[in-house]
Amino acid sequence: MGKERIPVIAIFDVGKTNKKLFLFDEHYQIVFERSARFLETVDEDGFPCENLESLRLSVFDSLHEVFRKAEYEIRAINFTSYGASFVYLDQNGRPLTPLYNYLKDYPAEMQEGLHNAYGGESKFALDTASPSLGNLNSGKQIYRLIKEKPDLFEQIKYALHLPQYLSFLVSGQMYSDMTSIGCHTALWDFTKKDYHQWVIDSGIDKKLAPIVNGKDVFSSTFPGSTYKVGTGLHDSSSALIPYLINFQEPFVLISTGTWCISMNPFNDEPLTKDELDQDCLFYLTYSGTPVKASRLFAGYEHEAQSKRIADHFNVTTARFKHFEINWRIIEGLNLEQTIDAFTLQTFASLDLNQFNTYEEAYHALILCLVNAQVESTKLVLTKQNVKRIFVDGGFSKNHIYMNLLSRRFSDIEIYAASMAQATAVGAALLIHEHWNTLPFPNNIIELRYYRA
């Protein structure tokens, strides 16, 4: 008798830097993982971009590798990846262009022309719940193709966001999903709950594949295989899924990384111009309901300023890893009287000579970071009662950050939430019923409560 094979789901989690493959068992424990980094290539203008061919080959290579492992039975596959990236496919499913980088500059007059044709920048941004971000509004990338390469635009069968392209590689099916359409793409009209008029006027709607619900699955194209293939998800929306499944009371999730994104799935009040100017937007859940979100470039700033402190005091940044909070230092910082004035910008211009130790300087940095975070998160809190704020990602392990945050939000319960690979788990949970025979797990999120 052979050993019982372990039923698993394979999740591809494709970040800008790291590409990962996980196998989860029915208890959502990781039983196998593999990580890769590819060398970037360049587009026709010499601008760095993702190497699509390496990515495609890597998906097939790693799938072949896990299919060879006799101890696992792969029942389903799903995908999650960063947004704002389109793959343009021809009739035969072959990419027509490089995968353009969302950090590439966008022609200002082209963006302006589009805005002005539809009521001006403010109205356009409000209707589409997308701050004006050039290439980060992925819909504008297609618009640019129409203007600069009309012949190529004609050849497009479908433009797929990256998660759906990855899914297509395995299922052979071309579809669009709400989480990708809803992440600052400038494609969706949040009042009309449909594509914005400009998408229809420019003929882009014909190049967007039919929309499916993120819970749907397809059969695989590989002969003889029985596993199901998910539609793929935008990473920020995927990370929210485990929380939505586990908590019914209104909450806000602050997902921390390079960007710290505060997401409130219980707030669908229309965006105001003021909120948009402060980097607020809507995401959409897999079922198409809006999630109000605000973004702060805090992880990036933390890294840059930590390095500045370390260099100044001649230590390594590793020293800051496990600091407990020192309240005496916090009270002693003469930033206290103007506490609200201290933001990320002010810290960057502070003279570090005013601090006696690196510990003091680092406490001051986190104080400034938390101030900025509180302002950012307040933008998505509403009149209705948010009972809890969950913090996941890097800052959830930072005791100074968590303590200061709970002091500032003294009337809300603050939790550091840890879950191995929330983004990947979200993509697995969403199609739970198609591969998992056990009930939904209720213990995959570990919470640590911080008392104000």
Automatic annotation (TrEMBL):
<dbReference type="GO" id="GO:0016301">
    <property type="term" value="F:kinase activity"/>
</dbReference>
<dbReference type="InterPro" id="IPR018484">
    <property type="entry name" value="FGGY_N"/>
</dbReference>
<comment type="similarity">
    <text>Belongs to the FGGY kinase family.</text>
</comment>
<dbReference type="InterPro" id="IPR049382">
    <property type="entry name" value="FGGY_C_2"/>
</dbReference>
<dbReference type="Pfam" id="PF00370">
    <property type="entry name" value="FGGY_N"/>
</dbReference>
<protein>
    <submittedName>
        <fullName>Carbohydrate kinase</fullName>
    </submittedName>
</protein>
<dbReference type="Pfam" id="PF21546">
    <property type="entry name" value="FGGY_C_2"/>
</dbReference>
<feature type="domain" description="Carbohydrate kinase FGGY C-terminal">
    <location>
        <begin position="248"/>
        <end position="433"/>
    </location>
</feature>
<keyword id="KW-0418">Kinase</keyword>
<feature type="domain" description="Carbohydrate kinase FGGY N-terminal">
    <location>
        <begin position="9"/>
        <end position="230"/>
    </location>
</feature>
<dbReference type="InterPro" id="IPR043129">
    <property type="entry name" value="ATPase_NBD"/>
</dbReference>
<keyword id="KW-0808">Transferase</keyword>
